[in-house]
Amino acid sequence: MPSVMTKSLWDSRRSLAGFAVGTALVGAMYAGFYPQVADGAMGQAVEGFSPAMREALNMEDLSSAAGYLGSSVFGIIVPLIAVIYGIATGTRAIAGDEEAGYLDLLLAHPVTRTRLLLHRFLALTIGAFALAGLVWLAMLTIRSGAQLDTVSIAQFTAQCLALALLATFFGTAAITIGAVTGSRAAALAGTAVLGVLTYAANTFAAQIGADAARYASPFHYYIGDEPLRNGFQWADLGILTAAIALLVSTAITAFNRRDLTS
């Protein structure tokens, strides 16, 4: 049989292309508004927000390119679409095929459960990095025209690398829940709830006096140390990678132990 990873990528080529192109276009469109924001139009509107709200939404410095991109483009819009891609892909990887009866057909071939899961994980990871790579290309394409030159190519690279790992994290979480339960609904709902709670923890923890909670959120390691200003945050990237590895290990163990005939 052809490589499970290759076939997974081929089967998902249309959705991956849609997510990647859509994310890059939306990100570039919002990033292109920066010259108008830098003129103060949006800054005046944000002045009506409370200081706590501006801090929570990372809108304290909209006049700089890094501040604007970190609050809107890479703060909300782009990671939201990337996380949705990860969850959708991860949900289909194991639980979706199991509910559709396709998993039994796959495992009838000489492929172990571990190999199947790892190939699906690799397909997810490649897709996440392709999506982030297209966003990176879109940012570099409009960088000069949108007056984003103060953010270096390396800083854009650092942020997009973190974006790829964030999407991979949530996709792997969906694979893990699917491997444990065999339920597509549980994988989808569980990962969606995880996304909402961890985003809220990173955004509002300081406002409710629970600042330590943000360190339990993958969004903190994605953007908390501002890669668009400070470049590669290797400790944060390492924590995201370690969390993904832990999820993969958990998924393999659960998938191998579970009775798929029940």
What does the model show?
The structure is a single chain. With 262 residues, this protein is mostly helical. 76% of the residues lie in helices and 0% in strands. The chain is built from 13 helices and no strands. The two termini are 26 Å apart. The mean pLDDT is 90.
Task: Pick out its properties.
single chain; 262 residues; mainly alpha; globular
Largest sheet: none
Count of β-strands: 0
Helical stretch tally: 13
Q: Which term fits the overall shape?
A: globular
From the alpha carbons, calculate the radius of gyration and give it in angstroms. Answer: 19 Å
Gap between N and C termini:
26 Å
Pattern of helices and strands: HHHHHHHHHHHHH
The proportion of residues in beta strands is: under 5%
Q: What structural class do helix, strand and pairing data support? A: mainly alpha
- Rounded mean pLDDT is 90
